[in-house]
Each structure stands twice: as structure tokens, then as C-alpha cells.
User: Fold these one by one.
Assistant:
Number 1:
Amino acid sequence: MHGADNNQPVMNCDRFGRTINYLRLSVTDRCNLRCSYCMPEQGVPLCSHDEILRYEDLLRIARAAVRLGIEKVRVTGGEPLVRKGLIGFLASLNAIPNLAEVVLTTNGLLLASLAGQLRQAGVGRVNISLDSLEFDRYAKITRGGDLAEVLAGIKAAEKAGLQLKLNMVVMRDINDSEIEAFAELSLDRSWSIRFIEYMPTIRAKAWRERVVPGAEILERLQKKYRIVPLATGRMCGPSRPFRIEGAQGSIGIITPMSNHFCGSCNRIRVTSAGLAKSCLLSEQTVDLKPYLAQDDDLLCQALRQVIGNKVDYHQMADDSFGPASFSMSGIGG
Ligand code: SAM
Ligand code: SF4
């Protein structure tokens, strides 16, 4: 489609030869939780309602991204389920030709009432962020969340026929004692249980002590179970997949800190205010809003620039990396 010079990607490849086929699209920066690893207690500055893109604009961005080779869109937040009209938006997203997959990441609090509608809107798979199976600990980590609501959401999602992935951010001395209990959820359910290394985006005090490296998580599981590595799929993302021998479900380990997976990064991100990012940790954004008033070719060109901006790897584990200037809830993880 274009030459390889001046940051112009060839088809959907970036200048390091990585195929970019995955868009994380945030529909809101609002959230009904205040997870301690994601935002400070007082919350984060929010965009004004005027700044948040209308669904039709988010759809235009998604369509333009598909023209550039995006095959999978993950809808995220803040908490995506708090935005009104989400179900209709998801159905329209699903109707985009050549978009192979629409998936959602949620904290699960509102899933009990929405799971059936999500399925009907064409969502096949949902990632639920859940960091503890103990009521008090869950409330503490999320600063007030009710685990019972998430469990009801999981039940409803299963009943609706949604495939489930559970994402646990592992933090030493906070919830790492539950690694084995989480892994055991995969024994007689077809769920994928994924362990994510804690990322110090808010540079909390003594953050290094909190990070439990993926290798340690695996070692701990291997002490208890025979763990079998699985093949990764083209659209799998950064998770290294395993199975406890004989289990119905699987386990995934995601290591943004101890072993960054930038070499196989396949994604770009767009916030609910229309800021496109080529890397979660990059300070650089491209504001897509001005392009929404122009024709689709210019919007595609702006997205090409985002792909062209992708760096080869991030440096979050370095001491020189200060507190991130963005919030995870604003970007959508
Ligand atoms: N509210 C939704 C949820 O919690 O699933 C979607 C947005 S949330 C920002 C997306 C993902 O980012 C969640 O799985 C969350 O656990 C993860 N996340 C947020 N802060 C993180 C951190 N400091 N380290 C690792 N993962 C983090
Ligand atoms: Fe927690 Fe997700 Fe909300 Fe962040 S955006 S506070 S991870 S629920």
C-alpha cells in the first residue's frame, strides 16, 4: 500500500516488521471502582462529557482501523459497562465487515444484568478483572467493590454462553497467596485464568517489592501441578499459555515487567476522548478528533501515523521511568 520510508507502514506492519491487528478502544474514562493499583484513592482527573467521543465517531475510528488491517477490537474503559448505550454500540461494531473479533474487558460489577445482551450483541468473549476471591481483600484492593456482584456477573456470563478469561494482577503480600486458588478455577471450567505482573504506572511506594515475576508465578504452580505449555495463536496477544495437566481450562502469564513482549506487540490504543496511542507507556498521542471532521482517508492516514510511531520496546522497569503521565483507567489498560 505504501513504501517503508518516513514511518509509512507497509499494510499493517510497523517499521519493526510487527503486524498490527489489534485495537484497544476505550469508550469511557469513568469507573465504578478505584482499584489501588490502577488509580490513586482520590481518583484521576476525568474528561468533560463534551470531550468524550460519540459512539458514531468511535465506530468511524474502528472502521478506519479495520481498513488498515485491524482484525480484533477490545472495548475497554474506565469501566465500559457504565456507559449508556453500550450494547447498541457493540452490535454496530460487530457488524463492521472484516472485523473478526469484538471482545470486552470489564470489572464484572454490572455483568449480571448485561451478560445476555452482550451475547446478543455478538460479543463472544469477556475478560473479567478479578484480583481476589476473598470478600474483604477484594473490597480492599478495589476500594469498596463487592465481590458478590462480580461472582453473580460471572455466573450470568457463563449462562449467557460467553467465554471467560479472568485477569488477576498479582501483587506480593497483597494477593499473591491466592495464585494457586485462581489457577484451580481452570481445573473443571473452560476458563482462561491469566496472571498479570503488576505495573507501577502510579509509581506507588516500594513498587518493586510488589512485582511478582511471571517466572516465580509459574514455579509456584509447578510445585503443585504438572504444567503443560500450550501453543499460542496469532491473535493471542502477550499471554504465555499453559494448562494444568488434565484441566478443562488454561492458564496465562503476562509479563510486562520481567520480560516485556514488545517484540510481538500487535496493538494500538484509542481513548474515549479520541487520543490514539501506539504504546501503553508512550507519552506520545495523536489526537484523532480533528480528523473526524475530515474524510475517512485522512483518518486512516492519522492512524497510519500512530502505527508508524510505535517504538521497539518500553522502559517501564527502569528507575528513570517516573510516574506515568496517563492513567490506566483513561487508556483502558
Ligand atoms: N475497568 C475494566 C477492568 O478493570 O477490566 C477495564 C479497564 S482496566 C484499566 C484494564 C485492565 O488494566 C484490567 O485488567 C486491570 O487489571 C489492568 N490494570 C490496571 N492497572 C494495572 C497495573 N498497574 N498493572 C497491571 N494491570 C493493570
Ligand atoms: Fe479497577 Fe478497571 Fe476501574 Fe481501573 S478501570 S479502577 S482496573 S475497574
Number 2:
Amino acid sequence: MSTVRAGNRSASAIDWAARRADFPILNRQVHGKPLIYLDSANTGQKPRAVIEAVDAFYRRHNANVSRAVHTLGSEATHAYEDARKRIARFINARSDDLVLTSGTTFSLNLVAYSYALPRLKPGDGIVLTRMEHHANIVPWQLIAERTGAVIKVAELTPAGELDLDDLYAKLSGEVKLLALTHVSNVLGTVNPVAAICREARRRGIVSVVDGSQALPHQAVDVAAIGCDFYAFTGHKMLGPTGTGGLWARAEHLAAMPPFLGGGEMIKEVRFEGTVFNDAPHKFEAGTPNIAGVIGLGAAVDYLGALGMAAIQTREQALLAYATTRLAAIPGLRIFGNARDKAAVISFAVDGAHAHDLATLLDLEGIAVRSGQHCAHPLLAWLGVSATCRASFAFFNTEAEIDALGDGIEKLRKLLA
Ligand code: PLP
């Protein structure tokens, strides 16, 4: 098994080709061509360390957590709770304030139903932004329907940055909650969440940050951000699918009622009434994705050993290279030119439908996402029905970006 021992070395001191070899899937071929995986914003590929952690759990330790006193049961519980501690440390949080969930969608619904639903009244405001993923829109619509709260939307500048004047103007009146993404999955825009959450807090507004696209690309410190809730998903940060978390301020977790009821989330059950467990277990009803969480623990160890600063530097270099390469293609339009941008490029090519382009690129072994990226309101604002999106991880190479550019140029001529 190859290990990563880079710590917090600079990006240039890391042998990225060797790190690429940590990902077994990158050795496969697609349609007879070497796989070029440019869809990490959709889901991340898994390094051997993560695959082996999941495999080792099922081979040697498999048992349910927090129930059995036998050896396997205590090993499983220890591994699961230890992973929680490491995942919490990765975002500079206390493990008691980290609810393990199946991912961002679950985490945001947990905030919507356990925090917002009991508190919001008719006429209260919920502020969202134009660049939200459906996972950070639909739960709030459902809550608004049930409470009579009103949704307001903060708009964007032409470069695809949040229009902070518009946002701050909307954080007024009866607004009780702001839900916004840290990084846009379509535009790549990195929002200044610390400044925004500070402003929200100053106005007595609770902030909910969707960190799905931030954690894979940069160091995240929830204490420094100063939000009330931070949601994330494990599979985009090299971990298994069906994992993720919700960090919340301890006072919120203590005050919130459970979201789902069942085993694990109780201290005592009588037919006359039930005493709930303390947070975070109060929000973790039923058998969790134990192997997945252990795999996510291995993923944060892997990321932490490389160092998020080095990963960010490496990905920014790839982003700059790809932006220059793609922008040189006639008829190609890039959506999102934020000053602070993660390694995600959405684009459209004149005369070529995004799905046709992605399908034909797949024949070249190149995986890019096409479609609306679960962001209908943003795509409507961009005035397109679909885009292609190339998203990068530290294991990608400049040669792969050249292959993408060459592929698009070839197909553009074919499709035009
Ligand atoms: N929010 C953003 C910004 C995303 O990119 C995604 C996934 O694409 C989600 C939320 C939903 O994540 P999940 O499907 O893992 O719950």
C-alpha cells in the first residue's frame, strides 16, 4: 500500500505523478483509451487508502456500532467514533458537534426540518443565492410552504460572483435564515463565507453553508467561518458515497428536536415517552454507513497528509492552464470568471449540444459532466439549457487538459 507522507509541504515538493498512482481506477481504459477523469465535482475517485480501509473493515471488523459488547462490536464502534474525531478535526470542529449523515442533501434537510420548521413563522424570510444546488433550494421551499416563510434570492454579478450589495440588502427585515454555498458546483465561484456569515450574525440571522464543493479543494475551518451550520458530503472529498456530515453550533444541536426516530438516537424508550440521546447521536437514528464513515476517515487522513494548501496550489495551476487552453478554442464560452474560483470550468461550444459533446468526449476516454448540474435557476440565469463541466482534482495532468482541448476542437468541427 502506498502511503502519503507529504504533510504540509509545498505543492512543488509533492510528486503528483506518484499520488496519481494512488488511484487504481485511473489505470483503466474507456472505449480503448486511457481514462481521463474530469468529473471530480460530481464524485471524487477513491485512493487505495480509502478502498483498503473499507475492505479491511468488512474483512476483519464488521459489526454494528454502539450495540454489541463483543470484540467486533467494540472494534467497529471504536473505528467509527475515531473516524468521527478525525473528520471533525479536518474542519477544526469538536466531534460532539459533528452529526454524521449520508451527505449534504441529508444534512441540509436535517437543518430545514429540525431547526427551521419549528421556528419559522409566516412572513419570516429565508435568503438563498442564485448559484445554489437544488439540495440547498428545495428543502427551503418545502419548509417555506409549511411555515408561510418567504424565500428571497441574492443575485450574481456578470462574472458569476455573489452580488454582495444585493445580498446584504436582502439580509434585512424579517429574514431569519441565510443558506448559501461555499463554492458553486457550476461556476466554481468561492464565496467569501466568513465575511458573509459575520454580517448575517451581526443582523441576528442564522447561516447555513453548503460545503460540498469546498472541502475537496481547500482547507475549511468552521470556527473561522463563523457560520451556524456547515454541511458536506464525503464522496466528493475522496470518501465513499452515502457519507457526509453536518457541523452545527452546540447550542443549536442541543435545542433541536431529532429529525428521524429509531435505534441509536435514544437513551431510554418507554411507551409513555422516550428520552433522546445527546448530540450528535440524537440525530443519527438507525444503523449508519459504518464502513463508509471509516472510509471517509481514511480520506481525510489522505487529504490531510498531502495538505490542503498544497492541493489548492496544485489545482489552481491546473485551473489556470485549463482556462487558457479552453478559452483559446473558437466558439467556446466559459461560464464563471470569479476572482476566487475552484478548479471547475463550465462551458458551452457554439453549435454543439452539451450532451452530444460529453458523449463524444467519452468515446475519447474523457469523462466530463453535461446537463443542468442540479442548478436549474442558475442555468436559467445563464440563459442556457445545459453546459459541459470539466472539474479537476490534484491527480489530473496538463496532458489530460490538452487532450480535452484537442477533443473539443475535433468535435466542434464534426458537430458544427
Ligand atoms: N451542494 C452542492 C454544491 C453540490 O455540488 C452537491 C452535489 O453535486 C450537493 C449539494 C448534493 O450533494 P449530495 O448529493 O452528495 O448530497
